[in-house]
Amino acid sequence: MRYAVNDAVVITKRQLLQLARVPEVLVFSTIQPVMFVLLFRYVFGGSISTGQPGGYVQLLMPGIFVQTVAFTLASTAIGLAEDMKKGLIDRFRSLPISRGAVIFGRTFGDALLNILVLTVMATAGYLVGWRPTSGILHTSLAFLFLFMFGYALSWIGILVGLSVKEARTVQSVGFLVTFPLTFLSNAFAPTTGMPKILQYFAEWNPVSTMVAACRQLFGLKNQFGATANSWPSQHPLQTSLLYMVILMVVFIPLSIRKYKNYSN
Amino acid sequence: MKSVIAENLVKTYRNGEVTALNGLSLDVEEGTVLGVLGPNGSGKTTTVRILATLLKPDSGSATVSGIDVIKNPEKVRELIGLSGQYETLTGWDNLVMFGRLYHLGRQSSIDRANELLERFDLTEAARRPIKTYSGGMRRRLDLAASLIVKPKILFLDEPTTGLDPRGRQDMWGVIQELVKGGVTLLLTTQYLEEADQLADEIAVIDRGTVIARGTSDALKKQVGGERLEITVENADVAATQEIVAKISGHATHTDLRTISAPVLNGSKDLMDALRAMDEAKIHPLDIGLKRPSLDDVFLSLTGHIAEETVQETVKKKRGGKK
């Protein structure tokens, strides 16, 4: 047990070192969300009337933040699949290290990467006019939520990576899961304008509840669907927290089990 | 004492469609080198993966230093070294990381990394990313990483596949050094020459079972004894044929200017031949005793040739070999 933490930390460190040696990864994992910020802010932002003081960007940024951390699912899965392909995971498995260390280490590494990416995103948002108005405490709490959400999703990524194994397939699967989840939500447009069935899905979608939670924590009144009467729309903080707990309770043991017998 | 014992290992993939191991048994005496020789797909890698606790067999059992690899994989992992991995980090990063994962402590990990880099002639490349290394350098680094805690038992899965002849020679030198240090080594290879060079004993495997085992010499004897072989100028062929026929007592075989025939007394027959040639004033261009090569052994045991081209092998590796 004493070693379990050491082992996970060594694996995390390796991942960060790798990032330092191949900085392109970091550049590309931030370029896309920054691009989204600029696109939505300047292309759609002008024609979406929100009645929101400060404009569309106030509503947009929480959506972008959640979308960004949601991609952790894909990046964790891809990273793991690549390591498996290189034979590195086999090599780790032949070492006398604790069972969970390799996958815990990877989720820690991806979580640390998320802190970095969120910092870049927040800066980009600030530059285009995003201003949280709720004070430092609530704003920090929002970022803590985002961080935890990314961490919980990265456990789905572990299971996907271990199950699919082929990095390119993993990439497709990752996007296949994250794109509908992020767009069938209140992230970029109000759910109230969607057909009934999509609206229902969008309101229960964890991305929506996360976005709504962040908006609330950043001090926004208009919620892009907070007018809906469903329970998750009315209680975004509680629902999001519940989702995160469920994700971790389900996917951490599943992933560890899968890791233990993945090649059998 | 046996360091490694595998008994009746069976392993199938894809719900029994593909049989990788079909009742494979082998053992390795402590402090010796067993060469597991076989073509691609014969079950070499699967065997190593089972012994290194990475894979559970469908049936059969295996022990390493007397410890059951299926029931007690954690204990086995403390004793073994396994090669086979590539990284985007630098060579130094990689070795320090493995040191830390073997719980060596920070300073000892660094010291051990430096020591191994020095020993494997990688000090200059230590701070470069591994992806810039040549194939030979990667293999040496890989080997270094498997030696961090001085394992008692080392598994090397095709340590020279894909290397050029020089890289292969270097790698053999390194492995021979290692073996002198008393490590027990199980080495898989598809190169007959490699098994001949490095292994005390060879297990020839084909389609998931051991089809022959013994020392390189014993395997060669199984195929046939020695032949006396002399190459001479064209003018001397007829006279040489007579000499060889007399010593051998068997029919000679002539291939251009090379005359050969089976002999029973090895070096004594060779000396007789030299003396007779000298008396007849014939200068041999080449003269010697030829024993069957391991190629001959494999061919006669399996009815097909062992080696595949290097390119094919590389392709298979990239495709994620099971």
Q: Distance between termini of chain A? A: 26 Å
Q: Give the C-alpha Rg of chain A.
A: 19 Å
Helix content of chain A: over 70%
| CATH homology group of the largest domain in chain B | P-loop containing nucleotide triphosphate hydrolases
Q: What's the CATH topology label of the largest domain in chain B?
A: Rossmann fold
> Could you tell me the number of beta strands of chain B?
14
Account of the 3D structure:
The complex is a heterodimer of chains A (264) and B (322). Chain A has 264 residues and is an all-alpha fold. Chain A has one domain (2-260). In chain A, 75% of the residues lie in helices and 0% in strands. In chain A, helix 4 crosses helix 6 and helix 7 runs antiparallel to helix 10. The two termini of chain A are 26 Å apart. The model of chain A has no long low-confidence stretch (mean pLDDT 87). The two termini of chain B are 31 Å apart. In chain B, helix 9 (237-248) packs antiparallel against helix 10 (267-279). In chain B, a hairpin with a 2-residue loop joins strand 4 (59-64) and strand 5. Chain B folds into two domains: 2-79 and 151-221 and 300-318, 3-Layer(aba) Sandwich (Rossmann fold); 226-290, Alpha-Beta Plaits. Chain B has helices spanning 44-51, 73-77, 91-101, 106-119, 135-146, 165-180, 192-198, 216-223, 237-248, 267-279, 294-302, 310-318; strands at 2-13, 18-29, 33-37, 59-64, 67-68, 80-82, 153-157, 184-189, 201-206, 209-214, 227-231, 253-255, 258-262, 286-290. The A-B interface holds A 3, 6-7, 10-11, 13-14, 17-18, 21-22, 85-88, 90-97, 165-166, 261, 263-264 and B 49, 52-56, 74, 77-78, 80, 82, 84-90, 93, 97-98, 100-103, 129, 145, 320.
SSE inventory with pairings:
The complex is a heterodimer of chains A (264) and B (322).
Chain A: H1 2-21, H2 24-44, H3 56-70, H4 72-85, H5 88-93, H6 101-127, H7 136-164, H8 167-183, H9 196-204, H10 206-217, H11 231-234, H12 236-260
Chain B: E1 2-13, E2 18-29, E3 33-37, H1 44-51, E4 59-64, E5 67-68, H2 73-77, E6 80-82, H3 91-101, H4 106-119, H5 135-146, E7 153-157, H6 165-180, E8 184-189, H7 192-198, E9 201-206, E10 209-214, H8 216-223, E11 227-231, H9 237-248, E12 253-255, E13 258-262, H10 267-279, E14 286-290, H11 294-302, H12 310-318
